[in-house]
Design goal:
- The protein folds into two domains: 292 residues, no CATH class; 103 residues, HUPs (Rossmann fold).
- Helix 9 packs across helix 11 and helix 10 packs antiparallel against helix 11.
- By secondary structure, it is mostly helical.
- Helices cover 43% and strands 6% of the residues.
- The chain is globular, with a radius of gyration of 21 Å.
- It binds flavin-adenine dinucleotide (FAD).
- Flavin-adenine dinucleotide (FAD) binds next to helix 3, helix 5, helix 9 and helix 11.
Length: 408
C-alpha cells in the first residue's frame, strides 16, 4: 500500500526543511512551520486541492491550531507580510472555516449531543477502517489515517463521501473513526464536515466521491486503480426531512477573574493561555493535565510532546513552577484545591466532562476573539466570511494586529 505521507514527510516535497518536525507539537515548531509555509502560501489557492506525496500544497498545521499552540488569527495574518490579501484569500478563508464551525456548534450544542447519541450503538465497517475494503485508494486513505494521524482535506472529503454514499455506512461511525485517529480531531470541524458530506448540514447538499475528480487531483504515484469503477457515477443517499439546526444557546457566560493567587488549569483545548486575558494575571499555582480521554498511540504521543513544551513555556511566562499531572480531580483532592481558573473548553468531550464534575469549581474564560467570531456564525459560512472581511478591512479584527500575542 502506498501511503500519502507519514510523520516527518508532511511538507518535505513542497516547502518544508526535510527534517522530522512536521505536525508541529510545540509553539516554536508551529511558528517555524508557519513561516516556511508563508513562503509558498501564494500558490495555495491554485494547488491546495492537489493531493501529492508529502502534502506540500497545504500547511499541515491543523493539530497545532486545533490545540491552540498558535491561534487561527495568527495563522491567517501571517501570509499578509508577503502577499496581498486577495492572493492569499483562499488560505485565510480556510483557516476561518475552522472558526466558523466552532462558532456554529457552540451556538447549537445539541448537534454534538445528537452525534454522541448516534455513535452509542454503532460498530462495524472493520474492513474499510483497516484498509481492506474493495476500493484501493480508500484503503490507502484509511491506512494513512491510522498510521500518521493526518489526511489531506480532499482525501477526507472523498473518504467520507465514499463511506456514506457508496459503502452506505452511518456517518457517525465514520466520524468516530476520524476522531479515534486524527491528531487534529476537533468536535466542530469533524462533526460538521461529516454532516455536510452526508447532506445534513446544508439541506439538499451532499458531496460525492467521483472517479474523474479523484484521478484529476490525486497524484499518479498514489492512485491505486483497484475498485475505482464503483466510483464511476455514485448516487447520493439524500437524507429526508433535513431541517437546519436551530441556535439554542446564544450567550456564553462572562465571569469575573481573580487577579492573583488562584490555581491556573491548562488543558489540551488551549495550550497558549498566556496570549489570552489570563496572560496578564498572577496565578499562585499552575497545573497542566491530560484528563483521560481515549486516544490512539499517535494522539497520545503528539499531546505528550505538546504538554511537555507548554510546561516549559508557561513556567517562563509566569515564573511559577508548573505541575503536570494525569488527573485534575485527584490532584485537587490531594492538594485541598477547591477551584481552578482556565480557558473554557468549547463543545466536546472536555466540556462535557467539566459539566459532570461536582467536587471542583471552574471559573472558565472565553477568548474575546472566540466570543466575537461566534457572533457571526448564526447563518451560513459566506455571510460569516463577508462580515469578517469587513471587520478585517477596517482593522477591527484581529484585535491585536501586530500586538504582543501575534507573530507578525
Ligand atoms: C470529513 C472531514 C473531517 C474533518 N475533520 C477535521 C477535524 O477533526 N479537525 C480539523 O482541524 N479539521 C478537520 N477537517 C477540515 C480539514 O480537512 C483539515 O483542517 C485540514 O485538512 C488540515 O490540514 P492542513 O493543516 O494542512 O490544512 P490547510 O489547508 O493548510 O489549512 C490551514 C488550516 O485551516 C483550517 N482548515 C482548512 N480547511 C478546513 C476545513 N475544510 N474545515 C475547517 N478548518 C479547515 C485548519 O485549521 C488548517 O490547519 C475535516 C474535513 C473533512 C472533510
Amino acid at each position: 500500500m502506498v501511503f500519502l505521507g507519514r510523520i516527518g514527510d508532511c511538507g518535505d516535497e513542497g516547502w518544508g526543511d526535510g527534517g522530522g518536525m512536521n505536525f508541529a507539537a510545540t509553539r516554536e515548531e508551529a511558528l517555524d512551520q508557519l513561516e516556511s509555509f508563508v513562503g509558498v502560501s501564494g500558490r495555495y489557492g491554485r494547488d491546495r486541492n492537489q493531493v501529492v506525496p508529502g502534502h506540500g500544497n497545504v500547511s499541515c498545521l491543523s493539530a497545532a491550531i486545533r490545540h491552540r499552540l498558535v491561534t487561527e488569527w495568527e495563522v491567517a495574518e501571517a501570509p499578509l507580510v508577503r502577499y496581498a490579501a486577495s492572493t492569499v484569500e483562499k488560505f485565510r478563508q480556510e483557516v476561518y472555516w475552522r472558526c466558523y464551525w466552532k462558532g456554529w456548534l457552540s451556538l447549537r450544542p445539541q448537534v454534538w449531543d445528537e452525534y454522541l447519541g448516534g455513535i452509542k450503538e454503532l460498530e462495524g465497517a472493520g474492513a474499510i477502517r483497516e484498509g481492506r475494503g474493495p476500493v484501493g485508494v480508500m484503503n490507502g486513505f484509511a491506512d494513512e489515517l491510522r498510521e500518521t494521524g493526518y489526511l489531506h482535506n480532499h482525501a477526507r472529503m472523498w473518504f467520507a463521501a465514499y463511506w456514506v454514499h457508496v459503502a452506505s455506512l452511518p456517518w457517525e461511525l465514520g466520524a468516530k473513526f476520524f476522531e479515534d485517529h486524527l491528531l487534529d480531531f476537533d468536535p466542530a470541524s469533524n462533526v460538521c464536515s461529516w454532516r455536510w458530506v452526508a447532506g445534513l448540514q446544508t439541506p439538499g447538499k451532499t458531496y460525492l466521491p467521483r472517479r474523474g475528480n479523484i484521478e484529476k487531483y490525486l497524484h499518479p504515484d498514489l492512485l491505486d486503480s483497484g475498485g475505482l469503477e464503483v466510483l464511476e457515477s455514485p448516487v447520493a443517499l439524500m437524507p429526508e426531512g433535513v431541517k437546519r439546526a436551530e441556535v439554542t444557546r446564544v450567550d456564553l457566560p462572562e465571569n469575573e477573574l481573580p487577579k492573583e493567587g488562584f490555581v491556573l488549569w491548562i488543558h489540551e483545548e488551549d495550550l497558549n493561555p498566556e496570549s489570552s486575558v489570563l496572560g496578564g494575571l498572577k496565578p499562585g499555582r499552575i497545573v497542566v493535565t491530560e484528563d483521560g480521554l481515549e486516544r490512539s498511540a499517535l494522539q497520545r504521543e503528539w499531546l505528550g510532546r505538546a504538554l511537555d513544551e507548554v510546561v516549559r513555556r508557561v513556567e517562563k511566562h509566569y515564573g511559577v513552577r508548573v505541575e503536570r499531572v494525569g488527573s485534575l480531580i485527584e490532584w485537587a483532592e490531594e492538594n485541598g484545591v477547591k477551584g481552578v481558573v482556565g480557558m473554557r473548553p468549547e463543545v466536546g468531550y472536555l466540556r462535557d466532562w467539566v459539566g459532570e464534575v461536582r467536587t471542583l469549581d471552574f471559573n472558565l474564560v472565553v477568548r474575546a476573539e472566540d466570543r466575537y467570531l461566534r457572533g457571526f456564525a448564526k447563518g451560513g459560512f459566506f455571510g460569516f466570511w463577508k462580515k469578517l472581511q469587513g471587520k478585517m478591512k477596517t482593522g477591527e479584527f484581529p484585535f491585536e494586529r501586530g500586538g504582543s500575542g501575534m507573530l507578525f
